[in-house]
Amino acid sequence: MSSPERRVELRSDTFTLPSREMLEAMVVAELGDDGYGEDPTVNELEAMAAHVIGKDAACFMPSGTMGNLSAIMTHCPRGAKVIMGAESDIYLYEAGGASVCGGVVYHPVPNRADGTMDLGLIAAAFPASPGDPQYALPALLCLENPQNHRGGKVLPASYLREVTTFARENGLTVHLDGSRIFNAALSARVPAAQLAGYADSVMFCLSKGLGAPVGSIVAGTAAFVRDVRRLRKMLGGGMRQAGVLAAAGIVALANRDRLADDHVSARRLADGLAAMSELAVERVEPGINMVFFRVATSELDTHAFIAAAQARGVRLAELGHNRIRAVTHNGVTADDIGYALDVIGSILADARRRGRTDCRRVLAG
């Protein structure tokens, strides 16, 4: 069972490596200075991204974090309030950038089990007396689809309609963190542009399941994207011959339907893990490329389990206390899934044997 030279990377789909097609496109990409708007490959990527996501314009970003930050700072004046889910990546994993760089106040709202936020709790973010100068006034609602921390849940269209209508009736602009929006679209069986259409602006990543080595996209109206470009420059994200990277993004977008293979791999992994009585698997329907589970036995704690798996070449990560996430991507084959299940089964079997041995020792003592 032990095969230390073998590596199955399930910690995140950010570990994807560019395909041969991407590498070849990067070598021959036509280049210019994107600071002057003259890199033709970047321009092609941005036009393609805007079309695919159903927005007027798009801006190529070094990262999704910078993309979300630029969008929030464009939508919100200093001292304004941004409302988002307490389990959202913007709130948990983006280093408080909107407050640090933009003077924007975060107002987290609890996410329900399905990833949605209660409209009443969103309404509670508004001051009872809007004219009172003591209060920060809400300007933006941020949604995340799919919901990473909620197991990769895809927000239903009915909720998106309801929450965005509520937001606009109350004077809020809507930004969508759609870092894995194409996974969500495949699961919901709708075009990504339909999901993005509920929001005024959207960010999506090229460097997760889509497999490009670097980059994200922010899209919205032409005026919004113009302001985002200025903030990208201010934040240090201006790039010169960025077509080298954009070329991989073009290939990634053209092959976005390949993500369905990752969903199949995730379902196979979830089915295999669910068959192991020592594990509690979170079932998410429709699922994307993520599987969340817990070690449900006193004979093995989470960190020891992850370390044992890593020692045998299977990389897993804790996301939430004692909650393990496995993410499939284009670097994980069907054979890798089988190997990972064999490794995990062997680790649990070893734990059972140790438990029985310790029990016999206690009885003998």
UniProtKB/TrEMBL annotation:
Print the keywords alphabetically: Pyridoxal phosphate
Q: Which SUPFAM superfamilies does this entry report, sorted A to Z?
A: PLP-dependent transferases (SSF53383)
Keyword Zinc attached: no
Cofactor(s) needed by this chain: pyridoxal 5'-phosphate
What InterPro entries would the database entry show? ArAA_b-elim_lyase/Thr_aldolase, Low_specificity_L-TA-like, PyrdxlP-dep_Trfase, PyrdxlP-dep_Trfase_major, PyrdxlP-dep_Trfase_small
Q: Where is the Aromatic amino acid beta-eliminating lyase/threonine aldolase domain?
A: 9-294
Q: Which domain of life is it from?
A: Bacteria
Supply the Pfam families for this chain: Beta_elim_lyase
Which NCBIfam families does UniProt cross-reference here?
Answer: GntG_guanitoxin (NF041359)
Q: Which family does it belong to?
A: Belongs to the threonine aldolase family.
UniProt protein name = GntG family PLP-dependent aldolase
Natural source organism: Nonomuraea typhae
